[in-house]
Structure formats: C-alpha cells, structure tokens
Amino acid sequence: MSKKVLIISTSPRKNGNSEILADEFARGAKEAGNIVEKISLCDKTVSFCKGCLACQKTQRCVINDDVNMITEKMLSAEVIVFATPVYFYEMCGQMKTLLDRSNTLYLSDYMFRDVYILAAAADNEESAMNGAVNGLQGWIACFEKVRLAGTIFAGGVEAAGEIKGHSSLKKAYDMGMKIK
C-alpha cells in the first residue's frame, strides 16, 4: 500500500548536501511505490511566527506567505521527512521557523504518523545532530499520534555537493525504500 510522503528540504542553499540526502530518500520512497512530493524552503517565503495563536481558532496562519500552502501539504501527508543542514549543532533556522509556524496543525485532524530527519554537517560526529533531533522530538511530542521513525546523518560534508559518494546516501535511499 503506497503512502503519501512529503519531504521538506529546509536548507537555504539550493542543491546543498541535505537536499541531496533528501533526493536519495525520495528516490527510494518513489521506487517503493509511494507518492512523493518534495518542497525546498530555499525558494519559499517563511516568516517568523507572531505568537498570536489565531491559528488555533482558524486552522490557518494570519501571515500570508508560503507556509499556509506547506502546512496544508503537511496536514494530508502520511509521512513527513525533514532534511536540514546542521548549524552550530542544531537544525537550520528555516526548519525551526517552519516548525513554529506549523502550529496550525496542532488541533487539526492531521494524517502524518511517521516523521524522519535527515541531517548533513561539517562535523564528523553523529552527535552533531543531537540538537536537531531533540528540537524535532519536541515538536513531535505535541502530536500524540506521531513518532520519530528514523534519522540519517551525513557527517564531514561542508561545501555544496561534497556529500556525493557519502555512505549516508545509500542509507537514505534504503530508508525511503522501507516506507510502505
């Protein structure tokens, strides 16, 4: 049975290492027969949350940017995959801002159950992604039917495209293939 998979590449850099990681996950998920869509935040407008909580009543953010379209897609996806570069041992700011703005989903009838995080960092130690994982787990904890289903770390990659040939690409592809 195919699933609806939404991959959100949060890197501000087009064709960056985390986006290449996302593309491999997408390739595996598609080959496994899933319906896959990828959104890249690098060409989207994602403004900061104002903390007004109007979204709790309307299920829509009062800020008119690309986030309302993205959260609509998140709402109907069964699987959400976040790909992020690791900056200062944390998810990139674009990802954190999107998570803050996804407050519209909190009281909704969301479809997603499995969430994955793919991270690329200049640091070689897998613990470099712990901050990003912890931050995402804090978001996941607000959705009682959701779990962190998997993580992939690509360390030792800094310049755009440096990830090519990295062992994490096969891991991302294989993880995507397991979605059914």
Protein model, in words:
There is one protein chain. This protein has 180 residues and is an alpha/beta fold. It has helices at residues 17-31, 55-58, 67-76, 93-101, 130-140, 167-177, and strands at residues 4-9, 35-40, 79-87, 90-91, 114-121, 147-155. Strands 1, 2, 3, 4, 5 and 6 form a 6-stranded mixed beta sheet that branches.
Question: Averaging pLDDT over every residue, what do you get?
Answer: 97
Beta percentage is 15-25%
Low-pLDDT parts are: none
Shape descriptor reads: globular
Separation of the first and last Cα atoms: 6 Å
Q: Helicity range of the residues?
A: 25-40%
Oligomer: single chain
Largest sheet: 6 strands, mixed
Number of helices: 6
SSE topology string: EHEHHEEHEHEH
How many β-strands, per DSSP? Answer: 6
Secondary structure category: alpha/beta
Return Rg in Å. 15 Å
